[in-house]
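Quick note —
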Amino acid sequence: MSTRGAWSSKFGFILAGAGSAIGLGAIWRFPYITGANGGAVFVLVFLVCCLVIGLPVMIAEFSLGRHTEKNAFGMFRALHGGRLWKWVGGLCIVSGFVIFSWYSVIAGWIIGYLYAAIIGTFDFFQGSTAVGAFFSAFAGDALLVSLLHFAIIFGTAFVVIRGIKDGIETLSKWLMPVLFVLLILLAVRSVTLPGAGAGLEFYLKPDWSKFSGKMVLAAMGQAFFSLSLGMGTMATYASYLSKRENIATSAAWITFFEVLISLIAGFVILPAVSAMGASYTEGPSLIFVVLPGIFGAMPGGYFFGVGFFILVIIAALTSTVSMLEVPVAYFVDEKRWTRRNAVLFVALVSFLIGTPAAQAHGASEFWTHLPGLGTDFFTFISTLFGDISLSVGAFFIALVTGWVWGARNAVGEITAEGNTFGLAGTWSFLIRWVAPVTIAIIFVNVIRALIVG
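Predicted structure written out below.
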């Protein structure tokens, strides 16, 4: 294990795991998904999903990773050498490659928007129409978006190439506290804006007329996405963890931090949206089109905007390092490459895969309107290697833990070195029955939506 690297402490592992979970899923996706699905009632269902689906699957990933001390591919192969499980392990590695490639495109946009905020670009925009025009010009600049994509890819590579302790753990120890402080300050500013009360009521007072099966599916999907489950990230992180550490409590702390940050992000964005008279249902464009227009109109908007985009960059970086580590660990473990060579190879391939995604918002007509698919390359690849691949990965992680390896063996790993796990029976039921069934529902829903719509 020492040749692969190891965490220096449980605290460092928890911060790194929380950093993986607390990314654009919490800061960018959670607020707009909440706004589009009824506000407070969605939040309540999301919390339940994190508890009964997300946390059990995370504990499962931790137990698999630490027990085998291998990457996602090697983990499945060690527990069951069948061809199906090798394919599942391979899917996890490929998902790490591809998700990192398109995720870094969004992170690159954040760098561009931070620069625009610093030089005061948004101070002159009154409303989302002007910002929409700015975004179209920004995303349509092929050279600019490619350079920003490159900056995120190789900035992440610089961290991961330094290893577990000196790279990923050190970054997380510095950035996670900064992220939390910034988020609290921005939330205080947001909730004290004139007109923020309507946003607070929308966010905190459940309207049960908004409850629906579709909303429940959205909440399950968000819990799954935001906890960074399904591609072996958490299993890979746990493979560097000492047997002395209690992985059940570690998973609980990471889930707690992710949920907390998501909830605070809602306090940052939704009250500000209501204060400026904007719509909660703007969708994924909320950060890039709606919020900059709000910054230009609100008192102190310059500092609010700069602080917000710094916050989102921090969140994105703590996630990109975990995504890059998944395929890197594969090449280090299975192919016996040096960490340096593995990182550089994965970074280069991810940059090449992600370049068409960076060009898919107006910079290239071909990648913006893929022939025969009726969508752009970014949407296609993020759906295929996001919603679908992660759903498949999480389903099989629950399946292999609960039924192939066995929940009893997993509990034995969790309680190694005298660690306690008082909810072993409850967890075994959730990982054997509740988690795979609900994840399958999410997956089927995604496929059905793609076919229908």
